[in-house]
Amino acid sequence: MVRTIASHIKVVQRIYQYYIDGASLGVIANKLESDQVTAPSGNLKWSRSVIDKILSNGKYVPYAISMEIFVAAQFEKDTRTNAQTNSDGFTQRKTTRYSSQNVLSGLLVVRPAGARFNG
After folding, report:
1. Arithmetic mean of pLDDT, 58-74
2. Residue ranges per structural domain of the chain
3. Full-model pTM
4. How many helices (H) does the chain have, and how many strands (E)?
């Protein structure tokens, strides 16, 4: 399938929006594959590295995404990275891992219909 510039722009916009909304690179790849979106390679298989390269590439500003969206994605990437530079310039792994879970996740317990609430 030949992809037009307009459809390419829409795919790039979707990738950035999914990422800013908290989707991982793997989740984005799965969404694109399930929607049968053609990857830059011409295949229907998307890799996390291709999505990461798209998210890191400033050439899409301002044609496909705004500078604000690009910067937001870069901040999100920085938040999610598992590496940090310490005061003497060396890179080391962070002691905590990124979690895309909402702060309130796990606090709501759903009971079967008709069950009594014991709050």
Report:
1. 95
2. 5-84
3. 0.70
4. 4, 2
